[in-house]
Amino acid sequence: MAHPTLHYGTAQIARRAGCSVQHVRDLERAGVLPPVRRAANGYRRYGEVHLRCVLAHRALATALGPVAAKELLRALHRDPPDAVLARLDAAHAGLHRERAELAAATAAAAAVAAEPIPDSRPADAMGIAELAGALGVRASALRHWEAEGLIGPGRDRGGARRYTPAQVRDARIVHQLRAAGYRIGAVRAVLGGLPRGDTADVAAALAARRRAIAARSRALLAAAAALAPLCGA
After folding, report:
1. Is the pTM of this model over 0.90?
2. pLDDT digits (tens, 9 = 90+) for 18-30
3. In sequence order, which residues have a C-beta less than 8 Å from that of residue 97 and are 6 or more positions away?
């Protein structure tokens, strides 16, 4: 990659990128920046390409995570421009997929949470295989959710798990939240309000997820703008 005239010191590039001097040096050491020339006095001299890489890394770390951000920028210095553009396209596609999954989970969770729960009768309870089949998950997933305290089935006289309508509702919401990318801890926090009938927590959690995806999308756009001049033919 050709370097323009180098004219930034370490402090200057850190100030322009909105980060610390140590962060710039860490990125250089990690191969996120291309090789840096030094002045006769030994001080580093950075150019526009280095500034763009620092800015792109900050945005990519928000959009994709710090590990993926470093990998993409290392590829920028190593691979043909088309390969880097393909990585960016894949990142955009991944965010689009997350949006679609979140939209489906939001609609499903809203429908499930709005369903009235009838008075429970023993005949209304479902067994673990029956519920797993209805959700399209393995029975081991239900056992894992139980171990994590997300659902708490009862037991029949023989010790087999039995899920009441309320527990089936919880399992359905867990399934949708997990499909939307929520970790176990976040799902547990959302479910905390359900026994009191406060299903607004589900909608609030999904809305927070939507805002997070939007922030990552904006960051990816910022990264693409910083990288565009470096990905020319």
Report:
1. no
2. 999 999 999 999 9
3. none
